[in-house]
Amino acid sequence: MDDTTTTTTPPTKATARSWIGLGVLVLPLLLITIDGTVLILGLPAISAELSPTGVEQLWMIDIYALVLAGLLVAMSALGDRFGRRRNLLIGAVVFATASVSGALATEPWMLIGARALLGVGGAIMMPSTLSLVRNMFLDREQRRYAMAVWAAMASVGAAVGPIIGGWIIETFSWQAAFLMNIPVMLLLLVLGPLLLPESRNPELQRIDAVSVVLSFVGMIGVVYAIKTLTGGKDIALGITALAVGLLAVAAFIRRQLRLPTPLLQVRLFTVRYFRGAVIADLLSIFAMVGALVALVQHLQLVLGLGPLEASLWLLPQAVFAAFAGFGAALLAKRILPAYIITAGLLIAASGFGLTIFLTPTSSPALIAASLALVSLGAGIGLALSNDIIMSSVRPERAGQAAATSETAYELGTTLGTAVLGGVLVAWYTRAVSAGTDALDLSPSLAERASSTMAEALLVAAEVGGSTGEAILQITKAAFTDAITLTGLAGAGVMVAAAIWALVTLRGAAANQDLAAEHENEVR
What we know:
The chain is mainly alpha-helical. The protein is built from 20 helices and no strands. The longest helix has 41 residues.
């Protein structure tokens, strides 16, 4: 009788060096996410100094996310092939160089170029941060807490971007918002080689250039189309971009299914837990960024708060975003992740729901409470969905999973800004156009007032008197109603996302070896 028994060697526990390395690793992540929103409160100062056109202002904000989203898959593959730590350090050099260029910009096109280069640096670094976490923390429970740290920094970065931007711009200048990146990048270049292990995917022997081009064109096309179509202008251009983007994505997917070593393992989406977590991840970011964009504008434009004062009311959001992931990681020991993520998304929905109580004279505390609940719920979702995503793959495939997760992050950011922002603008324009018909304004003034709330404030000041006061009342009421409608739309999306998470993630346990369970499905 054979009495040999099969034993499974437990995963190696992370050391103190690994946890210190995690602290170093989340620094670039924090800056990458901060840079996505740091200029929201800085545009007035930039406009006063550089005099950009309206289109140039949009590109100053949008180009960063466009380039970042377009290059994530390709840069992840380069990290898998040549080394993730090496990629991280190269990205730090690019990010620091772009930051210097941004601070020295004297023309709008120079600032747009610097923001594009920041996107390149971010795309090089971001997949490496998540894939290195997967390889540094092999024990599932330790990895869950490490992922909570990663998700907390991602959430905090998006939340504190306007806070940091408001403080720096009001205290120093908009150039300082770029210069703050340089010391952190230098610290990463010094400590990274000492604390972070190198890792790569031995299966990936070559990078398919056609796949790189298709992934870039596909992501840029889709993201640009979303921004254009929800803005209500250049519809033909938006439809063209969407068609080109979707065709490129379809060609990319078909090519990956045929390649022996694909740039991105699209068969990962056949895994229910992976697919469910990626969508939950995307919608969590959708909620947080969409709420941030709408409610920050209410603080400044309707309530009349300055950048620094407005940023202080965002502090509760940042605190809730920071601690949500850790709370979720603790709860996951006793409760299935599907139930926790579902609860988080419903909490985010309740935050959106608070906007039904919003009026033009509401206390900033109501907005702070709404944002805090959205960030709490989204932070819970991000922490556990990222853990499920990265635990669904073997360590050597961490880069591909990381690229997928972060592409969902960027799409969520774009959709949150574009879709919820589009609902906000559309309702505001319609309501103001109807409300100003009786004021006998010239067509040009009426069009300006209905374009944006910021422009309406300028029109009211120019007109003055009782007519100017009437414009203020109409536009503030219209903007507040638009935020309420946007909040209800966001709440509906979050409820749908909660149902999705409950159905697709049910059964995934916190200590389950998801990678081993689904390996045959991915082959």
